[in-house]
Design brief:
45% strand, Nuclear Transport Factor 2, Chain: A, 6 strands, six-stranded mixed sheet, alpha+beta, 3 helices, 132 residues
Length: 132
């Protein structure tokens, strides 16, 4: 896949991080489609109500999540559709921007759709790999 597609994928992830850091629930939700599916280690959010509840919790928690993406692989790049996977590290930061503990290995798969002049998430599956 082209490096342009990878840059779009990295942009979607950077926008997600920036919106989560804003702590503005409505702004966070604008990046997600109405039918988005959001899956993490602790929850599966298949409905809009579940996704809104999860993202509201993310907006209201004091720490902010930050990622450092080591590798982003575009799986499909088609008109108005982008599917990609990424691996890297995730950490939580206090309101002053100081790290709260160590970062953990993190991975995600995403489906983004171009909608209303920007990219919106329709699917996000993020998890921390389990050590053996």
């Amino acid at each position: 896949m082209s490096s342009e597609s990878e840059q779009v994928a990295r942009g979607v992830l950077a926008e997600l991080e920036e919106r989560l850091a804003s702590k503005d629930r409505d702004r966070i939700l604008e990046q997600w489609t109405e039918d988005a599916v959001l899956i993490g280690d602790a929850a599966e959010n298949f409905t809009r109500e579940e996704t809104v509840a999860y993202l509201t919790t993310m907006a209201e928690m004091a720490p902010t999540v930050r990622w450092q993406w080591e590798h982003v692989a575009v799986i499909l790049s088609a008109p108005q559709v982008l599917v990609f996977a990424a691996v890297g590290a995730m950490g939580f930061y206090d309101p002053d921007g100081s790290p709260m503990g160590d970062t953990e290995h993190f991975r995600t798969t995403c489906l983004a759709v171009e909608d209303q002049g920007g990219w919106r998430l329709r699917h996000f599956h993020g998890s921390e790999p389990q050590d053996d």
